[in-house]
Amino acid sequence: MTTSEQSTSEEWKNYKTELFRLDDDIPSKLEEALEAVQQELVEERDSKKEERFVWLMALMLVFDAFMFKDMTTWAGPISIITVQILMMVALGRKWGMDHIWTITEKIIQKWDGKFGRGA
Hints:
Elements: H1 3-19, H2 26-68, H3 75-94, H4 98-111
């Protein structure tokens, strides 16, 4: 190999290295972008769950309005509302509604162990 061929070969290697060199902060930018997209996905899922919960509550209110107008006693509406409240608390905890989770955790901590000891 002659000197001119060697210099051309070295120039080509340097050119390829310059051309395909990656910045050191590209992986960190990629990680930041990935984290931002993941956070958006979590927020979107939470908003869908919250929207589903609100629609279920609205549907239950419509059901109550139509059913309770024809009931002659208070026993039926009270029992239905009790079952609905228990169902909404269970669904709210399952779907991760923060306000329901906080309220039920406070109630559980307040009453923890008071019923099972027989005291």
